[in-house]
Structure formats: structure tokens, C-alpha cells
Automatic annotation (TrEMBL):
It comes from Nicoliella spurrieriana. It is found in: Cell membrane. The lineage of its organism: Bacteria, Bacillati, Bacillota, Bacilli, Lactobacillales. This is Phosphate transport system permease protein PstA. It comes from the Bacteria. Gene3D superfamilies: MetI-like. The chain crosses the membrane at residues 12-34, 66-87, 99-123, 129-148, 181-202, 260-283. The gene is pstA.
Amino acid sequence: MNPKIANKIADAVIYILVAVVVIILALLIGFILITGVPHISWHFLTSVSQAFAAGGGIRDQLFNSIYLLILTLIISFPIALGSGIYLAEYAPKNWFTNLIQTAIEVLSSLPSIIVGLFCYLLFVIKLQLGFSILSGAIALTFFNLPLLTRNIQESLESVPDLQREAGASLGLSRWKTITGIIFPIAIPGIITGIILSAGRVFGEAAALIYTAGESAPVINYGDFNPFNTASFLNPMRPAETLAVHIWKVNTEGVTPDASAISSGSSAVLIIVILIFNLGAHYIGKRLYAKMTASK
């Protein structure tokens, strides 16, 4: 076959495959938004959910999802950052490093229901943390760690060695080179990892059923003492998230407007994820520009 014709065919196939992916994604998001946005209102976002009556909202479930995401990132990001820096910059290429890499890949492939049951037995039952946001955040850390660690490692490794050599030629220590030169360049990739992990936190349901629970007790948004049972900041209270709420409404919901609640909740979930993604990209670009003095 003529090389030019073969090249055109290859280009056409690639464009078609990319178009298929974009169309599937657009149809999926479009269907969720079209069917769910009409059910979103201020009352829907700011009222508590109802078990039997119609007209319930998702106020507590939405807050619980965001709070759980913040706690999960607080726990998982420092661990993943340290692990990623070690694997990218310090770890020697030997069997032990390969063992760590394999363990990370195995951990990332574990089914969420298995992780949920493990965390239920260990944290909820054995350590008596109960169904709580903290138990849920620890369970989600198991999902986040492999993804974040691998992403941070690859982001750091993608920085050209020329940057490291430049740091060494200036007399900088390895740590100073990493924190002052390598890390700022890798920020966009690290932000991408945070976004991907956040999407999983927002959408995870199976593991949270066994750790954070399916109930959403009434909480007081004016109580800022995290040790009070009714405080919205208390990490030891049960917390039904938005994804769990969608699952619960579709499987056990007896409210007359269960379908509308499910559609509206799904649309809110997609919108929150999109806002988080765009916000994280914006913050990442600002940080990158500030730390590298680039425009």
C-alpha cells in the first residue's frame, strides 16, 4: 500500500476512535444532565432528605461527599507524595523497588467491595471507629494511594534529567533540587492525579456502605466543635454520601419522587465533579506559573 494512503487511513481511524470516545462521553453526561437538571432547585440542594415523603433534598449528602473528599485527601496526599518522591528520586532499581511497584499495582486493582469489607472488619468493628466519615476516608485512602502515588511518581520522572543536573551544578542538595526545581515542574501532572482520585471519591459507593454508613443523621451547621455529636465537622458521625444516596434511592427508596431524586442527585454529582476538575486545573496552572515564574 502507498505510504501516504496508509498514513491517511491511520489518521482517519485514530480520529474516528477519538470521536467515538467523545460521543460516548457526551451522550452519557448529556443524558444525566438533561434528565437531572430540571429536578435541581435551591430547595433540593438545601433541604434534608426524606425517607417516606416526597420533596426531600440532598443537603447533608452533598456536604458529606465534599467533607469526605477533603478528609481523604488530607490523609492520602502526604503519604502518596512521600511515596512518589521516594520511588521517583531515591529508590534504587532492584527487586525491592519492583516489589513495591507490584504491591501498588495490586492494591489499585482490588475490588472496592473487598476493600470495604476489610475496612469494615478492621476499622468499624475491631478498632471500634463505627460507621463514620473517618472510617470512610480511611477506606477511600486505600483507593487513592495507588493512583496518587503512581501519578506523582510518573510526573516527577517526566521532568528531564537536565533539570536535576542543573540543580547539582548550582551546588543544590538533592532535596533542594526536588522541592525547588523538580516539584514545581511536575505540579500539572500531580494536579491531574488529584482530580482523578477525587472523581473516584465522589463516585465511590460500595466501600462507603460498609464504612461511612447509609444513614444521614440531622447535623447542626452552626456547631463548629468537631467533638460534638451533632456538629457538621464531627468526623466520627455516620455520613451517607451522594453516591450512596443515589444507590439507596434506586434500590430501597419508597418515596413517591424517588426517580426525580435519583436523577437530580446524579446531575448534581456530575456538576460538582466538573466544577472540582475545572477549579483544580485553574489552581494548578496558577501554582505552576507562580512557582516556575512562567506565564
